């Protein structure tokens, strides 16, 4: 089985997590910790889990923003995310601070499928600039701040590399 890589968010903490099934157990690497988890054979939301040799009552339920995980009576609100989302959150690099030139760069290699702005156009923070298709996902690249489009450096159908400048804002 290919390891599943996630980001676990609990409160304001984020922890990278890798989950892999092997030898009849689930091997979990969360931050610096490594754990072997064996679940009972039940297929429902409350189970017994043996974590590193310690038996715990384990349950979960879906919420609007993720899951509520219960371990031995203590509840934790958690969200699981694909780590590529963090890359997309950091899609832009700003030069010159809030004033001056702002270069919007590709977070990952991909294919430009649409350009939503043109040179000279005014944009507000959060406005869609273009759509980048990467890893079978369509990702809308947003303006990190308001300004005027100084230059569009890509066109639909163009392949781009990670960190390549896509759009320049004034």
How would you sum up this structure, described in words?
Helix content is 4%, strand content 58%. With 170 residues, the chain is mostly beta strands. It has 2 domains: 4-81, 2-Layer Sandwich (Glycoprotein, Type 4 Pilin), CATH 3.30.700; 90-169, OB fold (Dihydrolipoamide Acetyltransferase, E2P), CATH 2.40.50. A hairpin with a 6-residue loop joins β4 (33-39) and β5 (46-51). The protein starts with a strand and ends with a strand.
Give a brief description.
Mean pLDDT is 81; it is low at 92-97.
Features:
Glycoprotein, Type 4 Pilin, 8-stranded antiparallel barrel, 5-stranded antiparallel sheet
CATH superfamily (homologous) name of the largest domain: RNA polymerase II/Efflux pump adaptor protein, barrel-sandwich hybrid domain
Indicate how many domains the architecture comprises.
2
- Low-confidence runs of at least 5 consecutive residues: 92-97
How many separate helices?
Answer: 1
Q: What is the helix content?
A: under 10%
The CATH class of the largest domain, by name, is Mainly Beta
Q: What's the β-strand tally?
A: 17
Q: What's the story with the biggest beta sheet?
A: 8 strands, antiparallel, barrel
Give the rounded overall mean pLDDT: 81
Spatial gap, N to C terminus? 48 Å
Helix and strand run: EEEEEEEEHEEEEEEEEE
CATH topology of the largest domain: OB fold (Dihydrolipoamide Acetyltransferase, E2P)
Tell me what portion of residues adopts beta-strand conformation.
over 45%
Structural class: mainly beta
Quaternary structure annotation = single chain
């Amino acid at each position: 089985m290919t390891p599943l890589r996630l980001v676990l968010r609990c409160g304001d903490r984020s922890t990278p997590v890798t989950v892999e099934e092997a030898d009849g157990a689930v091997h979990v690497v969360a931050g610096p910790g490594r754990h072997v988890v064996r679940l009972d054979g039940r297929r429902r939301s409350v189970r017994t889990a043996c974590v590193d040799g310690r038996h715990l009552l384990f349950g979960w339920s879906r919420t609007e923003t993720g899951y509520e995980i219960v371990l031995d009576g203590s509840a934790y609100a958690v969200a699981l995310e694909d780590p590529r989302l963090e890359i997309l959150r950091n899609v832009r690099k700003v030069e010159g601070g809030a004033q001056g030139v702002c270069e919007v760069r590709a977070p990952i290699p991909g294919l430009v499928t649409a350009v939503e702005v043109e040179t000279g156009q005014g944009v507000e923070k959060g406005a869609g600039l273009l759509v980048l298709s990467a890893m079978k996902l369509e990702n809308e690249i947003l303006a990190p701040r308001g300004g005027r489009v100084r230059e569009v450096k890509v066109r639909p159908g163009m392949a781009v590399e990670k960190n390549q400048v896509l759009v320049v804002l004034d």
